Request: fold
Amino acid sequence: MNIYVIGSGFFGAVIAERIAADAGIPVTVIEKRHHVGGNSWSEICPDTGIECHKYGSHIFHTSDEQVWNYMCRFTGFNNYRHKVLTTYNENVYTMPINLTTINSFYGLSLTSSEVSTFIAGEAAKEKIDKPENLEEKAVSLIGRPLYEAFIKGYTIKQWDKDPRELSSGIISRLPVRNDDNDRYFSDKYEGIPLDGYGKLFAEILNHDLISVKLNTDFFAVRDSIPPDSLILYTGAIDQFFDYCHGKLEWRTSTFETDIHDFPDYQGTTVMNYASHEIPYTRIHEFKHYHPERPSTDKTITYTEYSKKSKDKDEPYYPVATERNLMILEKYKKDAAKLNNVIFGGRLGSYKYLDMDDAISEALKCYESRVVPLLK
Ligand code: FAD
Ligand code: UDP
Reply:
């Protein structure tokens, strides 16, 4: 049986690796970009010598032992721990919202044991028993003033939607802490691949039975693929069906690159900008992801703008509205009718997946869906 994997992000790369290394079967990976690795890819900027995450900051974090052990076969990780700051009204605060954020914002000096009562009091000012959207969820957790300062403007910029139209799940990734813990993630394992994501993907795909065809769009070669092939498709699900039930909405990000002739721009990897008036969402400074590497004279920043994805843009974030989820259900029904095509990954399932989720789903998909077909 011929096997084709469409897309070489984490989902595609991991499933190709399993098919080659575990099943011992040749597999062709078709990738439309000039590089493997999907949105997680990184490479060294020739002008500064700094490793840049070309599609925005990617921090590897997981509590899944299987995923961690799998990844450690291909790379070591540094000890980077992600911390984010946010600028609001020209003041800088800790994000996610923690004891320090709350004390600085309200000009208080509450202790850890006092702050929960204080925030519960702020949240109770609006009686929201069953939060049904992002705004209600946030206000019920932190109260309106913190929501208006740190969540509302950023969320409108990120999604270009009223937060009352968005699912509360979008902010479930953001914890609220009553202590000084300022780590963005709470997972057991965290770090950046020591030699970057580009090298990591080259390592995962480095197998005699894997052949990678770059600069090749699946839709341009679809007709030349033998009809009895097994296809693992990680492109956009609506495009696969020629948008017959309508287009799913995506958000994309664009980046303005600046090289600075001094060693440090903002002293941290990511600075968020909470106010709606500032047009960008955040600034990434990549050198801080590798404190273990020798320092450089210059630094490079990417300023991120969020916008609706149009035809030529890379789709980044699925937009979780009722309309989109209804359309998705129709595509999923069509997908279930195809015996030789398996859909997966962020674009194929229209789900926001972190890297560890994409890897975990690929490992599970290999065992539960691919292996039985190979017998
Ligand atoms: P992708 O990486 O998108 O790969 C899909 C691949 O398919 C792409 O290479 C694409 O070119 C290819 N493709 C699509 N259509 C075709 C076609 N027709 N023909 C051929 N090839 C095709 N996760 C974290 O864990 N930590 C983070 O810090 C983090 N930060 C993120 C920041 C941003 C801005 C974004 C957008 C995502 C972030 N993520 C992060 C999520 C991470 O990017 C995803 O988990 C990961 O990319 C999922 O891998 P994937 O294989 O599903 O999809
Ligand atoms: N968010 C916010 N303010 C911030 C950071 C995040 O309101 O300073 C909200 C916003 O709606 C965002 C969501 O929380 O889309 C998830 O944020 P995260 O940083 O996890 O998103 P990502 O890094 O994937 O863009």
The longest helix spans residues 355-374. Residues 95-173 form one domain.
